[in-house]
Every structure is written in structure tokens, then in C-alpha cells.
UniProtKB/TrEMBL annotation:
The chain crosses the membrane at residues 14-35, 47-65, 136-160, 180-206, 241-259, 271-293, 363-396, 408-428, 448-468. Its main location: membrane. It is a multi-pass membrane protein. InterPro entries: SLC13A/DASS. The keyword tRNA processing does not apply. It comes from Podarcis lilfordi. This is Solute carrier family 13 member 3. Keywords: Ion transport, Membrane, Sodium, Sodium transport, Transmembrane, Transmembrane helix, Transport.
């Protein structure tokens, strides 16, 4: 589905349209960038969303402030004006002009004050430009990471959770596309709002003095940015039939996923045998339509006109495009993760690691969630989020059984916490793409990302202890976890008997 959206530039049209609606003030533009990137990241990969939005951001920034060459010219002009001030300080007054000395000194003082005032204004604008540039670029990868958590297919850790739940707890049916979206979408909006406020405040896009008059330089820059966005949108031309078809199929795709089994009312899956229809049925059905639905509006005249040319019509999605766009390496990685998790379970490694976490049994579950999320968020700063969740999910499942809490109470925060990697360029591919632009420093990401990580941990703890409790029935220990607990106990007993017999030998 994402490949078809990218093929017909529907994502670019959506992005530019949102930017036209939010306005061109720096704070509003950052909000528009974050909303657009997070929405696209819900359906596309985080890396693709970031790679698509960064060129748009760079074009808007250049229209706002110019490129680096303009910055150098302003800096050179500033140095020349300062040099003229020093030269004026060394200017000697001839003796024959003594009578007019007071007037000359007064004029000279006024000239120096004007020059210094203009110089300070240029320095302030340069500092403002640098900060806004950083705020723009750093907000895009952060929004991509946050947006990917809102859907079950938005990022790899969410898919791994869905797959490993079926492996660990075959009787668990509370996690599907609709229930996950109802839980994660409000969390995403809350995190985006506070993340936008933090980035805008840190980089000077929101001023505490609300009544401060806007400078003429900034007003002209914002007018140029508005023109650039409108010109880019106009270049896309009128909406094509292919874009309309992809948009309708995308909406149908989302509606079918949400309404399959929403839990609070019977979904359309209740019309079939239980377990016969899953989210994969919706995906395969819509994608199959993409492969044969025409990209140009079919004409009924072709059927009646014998002389009409028999030209081939391109479908909305070709297999060549699917081969190029679908990340097959991620699918292989997911499969390897499922195999590794099953190996940890069958060998008893996850049981042993869970047994080493006995100190957590004495903590309240809410505190345990905060600690687990913080540890995983720190771990994923240096490791792949996919590898991190593959390692931690089996351990969290066994720990939940030991604590006699709902397994999802620990597994969901651990899964989403893997996406909260904001502090380092190497933490996620979106961070690396933004850092490669050359305008960000490591200390910029560390300073901004530290509070983002803390906010993510706190908001996730709030969500799992409030509305997630009713969505996933986290208040009680489920029966399907009891069955897994009995199997685990049996496995431990068998291992103990084996070890005892080996020690006797």
C-alpha cells in the first residue's frame, strides 16, 4: 500500500496541503512538519517518511532564510560594518576644525550607534535562523519515530509484538489493528503536542513575549516560504485518476482494518468462522486490487469502437515497483526474530533471565513499567530497535507471569519504548538521515532528545495505567497466560529433573 502511495506522489500532495493549511510562521511550520511526518509514518516506513519530508523542509528553509552562501555574505557584511566602526574610532580631527568638533563627535556617535544597532540585529537574525533550521530538521525524525507507534504496522517492533504474542500466548486475541490504534493514537497526539512545544521553545520558534513585533526580515521570509509551498503544490498539477484511486483504496484499507474486530462492537469478522479472518486478509485483498486496477480512467467507448487502439494500461502497482519498494530484509529480520524468540522460550533461556529479575517482584507494577521502559529506551539508543525488542520481549513475558500481572502490561510499554530513541544520530535511521544534512550536532540531538525520552517514558506510563487498562483488560491476569504459566512450570520441572540426573551421573 505504501509503495502505491509513493508511486503516484500522493504522500507529497498530502504533505504540501497540510503545510499550506497550518501557516508559515516557524512554530506553525514545525507543527505542520511533525503532523505530516507522523501521519505518513503511520502507514509508510519511518525512514521513507523522513527521506520524503526532509527535501521539503530544506526548500522551505532556504526560502525563509536563504542558503549558506547568503549567510556568509551577511556575516562578511557584519564584519565590514564592525571594521568601519573601529576605523571611525581612530579618525583624527584636524586642528582647523576644532570649532565644529562637538557637532562632528555627535554625528559620529549617532553613526556608530546606528551601525552597532544594525550589526546586533543581523546577529540576532543569524542566531534565529540557525536555531529555526535546527528545530525544523530535528523535528522530522522525532515525528517519524513517534508516528510509527500509532499503528500495528507502523514500525517493526509493533509487528514483532503481534507475531510473538501468537507464539507465546496463542489464546491472546485482544491485540489487533483497531484496538492498537485506539490505544496508541491518543498517546501519539499527546507526545507530538508536548514534543512540538519543547522543540519550538528550545529553538526560539515560540517566544515568551507574545506581543513582540515581527521584524520586516522575518515577514518577508515567511511570504517567500508561503510562495515556495504553493508553487510546489501547483507543480503537482490537478489530482490524477491514479491518485484518487489509491486514496479511495487506502481509505477502504484503513476502514476494513479498524472495523474487523473493534472489540467494543462486533466487527465484520464475526460473519466468518472465528480465526478464519485476520488483518492479513484485508492487506492481501486490497493489494491484489492494486495490481490490476488501471491507473488511467477506463473509457466505455473502447468496448464499442472497433477501431480503438488496443494499448496496455498501467496498473496502480506493478510487481517491479513492489520488488524495489518492499523492504524484504525487514521481513527476513522479523522471521529471524520470531525464530530467536521461540528458541529462547523452548530452551528455557527467557525463564532463566526472568528469574534473575527477582528484585522487580517487590516493586509496584506501575514503577516496574517506568523502569522497564526507561531501560529499553536507553538500550535502544545504541542498538537497533528491532534487535532490542527481540531480546526483551521473551524476558518481559516471563517477568509478567512471575509478577502475576497481565503480560501486555509489560510487553506493550517495552515495545513502544523501543521507538523512543531520540538522543543520538545512530539510534534510528531517521536520526541518521537528519544528522547527515550537516546542520545538526550531536549535542543538539542529545540536549533535545533527553527530555523527549523522559516525556515518552512518562506519557507511556500514563497511557498504560489509564485508557489502555480498559482497552486490553489489563486489570486481571488472563486465562491464556495461566496456560502458558503451567507450560513454563512444566518446562522448568523437566529441566530440574534433567540437571539432577546429570549431576548424579
Amino acid at each position: 500500500m505504501a509503495a502505491a502511495i509513493e508511486e503516484w506522489n500522493l504522500h507529497r500532495r498530502i504533505a504540501l496541503r497540510i503545510l499550506m493549511l497550518v501557516g508559515v510562521q516557524p512554530a506553525r511550520l514545525i507543527l505542520g512538519m511533525m503532523l505530516t511526518t507522523s501521519f505518513l509514518s503511520m502507514w509508510l516506513s519511518n525512514t521513507a517518511s523522513t527521506a520524503m519530508m526532509l527535501p521539503i523542509a530544506m526548500a522551505v528553509l532556504k526560502s525563509l532564510f536563504g542558503d549558506k552562501e547568503t549567510s556568509r555574505d551577511l556575516k562578511r557584511e557584519n564584519e565590514e560594518s564592525q571594521a568601519s566602526v573601529h576605523q571611525n574610532k581612530l579618525h583624527t580631527v584636524p586642528t582647523e576644525m576644532q570649532l565644529l568638533a562637538n557637532v562632528d563627535e555627535k554625528d559620529l556617535t549617532e553613526e556608530k550607534e546606528v551601525t552597532i544597532e544594525v550589526s546586533s540585529d543581523i546577529q540576532k537574525e543569524e542566531e534565529h535562523k540557525k536555531n529555526v533550521w535546527k528545530g525544523f530538521l530535528i523535528s522530522i525524525p522525532y515525528a517519524a519515530s513517534i508516528g510509527g507507534t500509532a499503528t500495528l504496522t507502523g514500525t517493526a517492533p509493533n509487528l514483532i509484538l503481534s507475531g510473538q504474542l501468537k507464539s507465546f500466548f496463542p489464546g491472546c486475541d485482544v491485540v489487533n489493528f483497531g484496538s492498537w490504534f485506539v490505544f496508541a493514537f491518543p498517546l501519539m497526539l499527546l507526545f507530538l503536542l508536548f514534543g512540538w512545544l519543547w522543540i519550538s521553545f528550545l529553538y526560539g520558534c515560540i517566544s515568551l513575549s507574545w506581543r513582540k513585533k515581527k521584524s520586516e526580515i522575518r515577514a518577508e521570509a515567511e511570504a517567500r516560504a508561503r510562495t515556495v509551498i504553493r508553487d510546489d503544490y501547483r507543480k503537482l498539477g490537478p489530482i490524477k485518476f491514479a491518485e484518487q484511486a489509491v486514496f479511495v483504496l487506502f481509505c477502504l484499507f484503513a476502514i476494513l482494518l479498524f472495523s474487523r474486530d473493534p472489540k467494543f462492537i462486533p466487527g465484520w469478522a464475526s460473519l466468518f468462522t472465528p480465526g478464519f479472518v485476520t488483518d492479513a486478509v484485508t492487506g492481501v485483498t486490497i493489494v491484489t486490487i492494486l495490481f490490476f486496477f488501471p491507473s488511467k480512467k477506463p473509457s466505455l467507448k473502447w468496448w464499442f469502437d472497433l477501431k480503438a487502439p488496443n494499448t496496455e494500461n498501467q496498473p496502480l502497482l506493478t510487481w517491479r515497483k513492489a520488488q524495489e519498494s518492499v523492504p524484504w530484509n525487514i521481513i527476513l529480520l522479523l522471521g529471524g526474530g520470531f525464530a530467536m524468540a521461540k528458541g529462547c522460550e523452548e530452551s528455557g533461556l527467557s525463564v532463566w533471565i526472568g528469574g534473575q529479575l527477582d528484585p522487580l517482584e517487590n516493586l509496584p507494577p506501575a514503577v516496574a513499567v517506568i523502569l522497564i521502559t526507561a531501560v529499553i529506551a536507553l538500550f535502544t539508543e545504541f542498538a537497533s530497535n528491532t534487535a532490542t525488542i527481540i531480546i526483551f520481549l521473551p524476558v518481559l513475558a516471563e517477568l509478567a507471569i512471575r509478577l502475576k500481572v497481565h503480560p501486555l502490561y509489560l510487553m506493550i510499554p517495552g515495545t513502544i519504548g523501543c521507538s523512543f530513541a531520540f538522543m543520538l544520530p545512530v539510534s534510528t535511521p531517521p536520526n541518521s538521515i537528519a544528522f547527515a544534512s550537516g546542520h545538526l550536532l550531536v549535542k543538539d540531538m542529545a540536549r533535545t532528545g533527553l527530555l523527549m525520552n523522559l516525556m515518552g517514558v512518562l506519557f507511556l506510563s500514563l497511557a498504560i495505567n489509564t485508557w489502555a487498562t480498559s482497552i486490553f483488560q489489563l486489570g486481571s491476569f488472563p486465562d491464556w497466560a495461566n496456560i502458558h504459566s503451567e507450560n513454563t512450570t512444566l518446562l522448568v520441572d523437566v529441566q530440574n529433573v534433567t540437571l539432577n540426573s546429570m549431576s548424579k551421573l
